[in-house]
Amino acid sequence: MFSSFLEPHSWVWWLVIGGLAGGLAKLLMPGKDPGGCIITILLGVGGALLAGWLGQQFWGSDWRAGFIGAFVGAFVILLLYRLIARRRRF
Hints:
Layout: H1 11-28, H2 37-59, H3 67-89
């Protein structure tokens, strides 16, 4: 019954991996970050989507982002957010 929720293509799996990847990106990038766990999950899912899209552009249509790709994508998104937010403060 619950095995279909843990398959790599299910939405629950995307949320779990997104939460882990976004949390790791926030943990490894020092400084204050906006949002709570929902933003962290969205950061990780967005990172996976970014990494998957870039992978398909460079390595073909069958390439998918795994956890490392989701983490790197989340890290890049968080870095870009901080660069944009820093410019708006001044």
